[in-house]
Every structure is written in C-alpha cells, then in structure tokens.
Amino acid sequence: MKILLLEDDATLSRVIKKGLEKENYAVDCFFDGELALNAISNGYSCFILDINTPSLDGISILKNIRDYLGASIPVIIISSNHELEKIKASYEKGCNDYIKKPFFIYELVQKVKHLCQIEFNFIEFNDSCKYNFMEHTLYVNNEKIILARKEILFLELFISNLNRIVTYAEIETYVWEGEDSNIDNIRALIKRIRKKLPNESIQIVTGYGYTLNKECKYS
C-alpha cells in the first residue's frame, strides 16, 4: 500500500517514513506542496499532509484530492497549527483525522492502520485460485504464480472494488502511477492477467471498464 507524505521538516519526514515502512507501507516523501499536488494521481492509498509547506499548503491539496479522487481515500492532516479555524477548515475540506504536533510516531502509524484497515487476506477466484493481499502473491493449486508490478497493482485495485465496475480512468491512474497510458495498454495488461486466472474472472463492461466475476469473494 502506497502513502504520500508531505512534510517539509526533513528529520520528521524521515522518522515518519521509517515508522510506516516498518509496517510494510511504501512511502513517497515530498517537501514541496506543488510537487505533492502533481503526484496525487499516482495511485496512493493514503495521504499524510502537513498544512504549512512551501508553494502550496496541505489544506489546498486536501481539497484537490477530494475534488479529483473522491472521498474514499484516507487523508490525515499533521500540523503545529493548533488554531480552531485551521482544524475546522481541514475537517470541512474532508480530512479523516487531524494530528497536532508534536506527536508520537506510534500514534500516527496506528491512525494509518485504522484508516487503511483491511479485514481480509484473500480474494478467491475459485477453489483452486486465490490472491493473497498481504503477500501480494497469486496462488493456483497452492503454487505461487509470478506477477509483474502492474499485474499486482491491478488486482489490488479490485480489493476495495470487488462489487462494482472499475473504470478505465481508475485503472490508468492507479496501475500506471501517473505515467501516460491508453486503452490498448490496459487491454494488453488484462490479457496477460487473464492467462493466470480462471476463465471469466475479469469481465469487461463495454465502453466503461472491468469488474470481477460475482463468484470472486473475500476470505
């Protein structure tokens, strides 16, 4: 699971990154608000934003996240600003939590784990094929199947979207992590993944996107 961290204090940024990486999160650190804003569509599952950062403040980035990525992605605001107006503005723009500096790294890590909690370990495609989300590994007849990075990202995109259609735009944003892509690349990726899964596991919704077969389930 990837996290974007915006914190212009280099020392604090390193400590937060280290604490989260111990819990197996991947963390991309940014020190400048404009650079962080340009990266928000790179497939992050959680955002940790300081308010007072160069070029652009965290609340403005929060607004962009909610406007363009929706309300489902967790956003935590961290700030040394204890003014009620700043706290209210953060919640009004849609933050999930607001942590006042100084804080214990343990506290932040626990909040991330709570907001990004996954209550299951597998997606079962059928009795002989399942994907282990914690290991990022596909098993067929109890044998490990090697997956490329984009194949892993594609399958994990469906972890939180099992019962709905995932659009082409969502696939491009999450799987290509901000890189330019097109429908042909998406179709080529789907073709490769289908060879490793049971027949009809991934179903196309013409002109819109893809969904998983209704037989697929969490476990």
| Helix and strand element order | EHEHEHEHEHEEEEHEHHEEE
Beta strand count: 13
Taken together, the total number of domains comes to 2
Continuous helix count: 8
CATH architectural designation of the largest domain = 3-Layer(aba) Sandwich
CATH superfamily of the largest domain: Response regulator
CATH overall fold name of the largest domain: Rossmann fold
Multimerization state: single chain
Overall mean pLDDT: 88
Class of the largest domain, according to the CATH hierarchy? Alpha Beta
Cα distance, first to last residue?
Answer: 19 Å
Low-confidence stretches: none
Global outline: elongated
Which structural class matches the secondary elements? alpha/beta
Question: How are the strands of the biggest sheet laid out side by side?
Answer: 2-1-3-4-5
Beta fraction of the residues? 15-25%
- Overall radius of gyration: 19 Å
Biggest pleated-sheet summary: 5 strands, parallel
Helix content class: 25-40%
Describe this structure in words.
With 219 residues, this protein is α/β, with parallel strands linked by helices. It folds into two domains: 2-115, Rossmann fold, CATH 3.40.50; 122-218, Winged helix-like DNA-binding domain superfamily/Winged helix DNA-binding domain (Arc Repressor Mutant, subunit A). It is 36% helix and 24% strand. It contains eight helices and 13 strands. The strands form three sheets. A five-stranded parallel sheet has the order 2-1-3-4-5, with helices on both faces. Strand 3, helix 3 (58-69) and strand 4 (75-79) form a beta-alpha-beta unit. The mean pLDDT is 88.
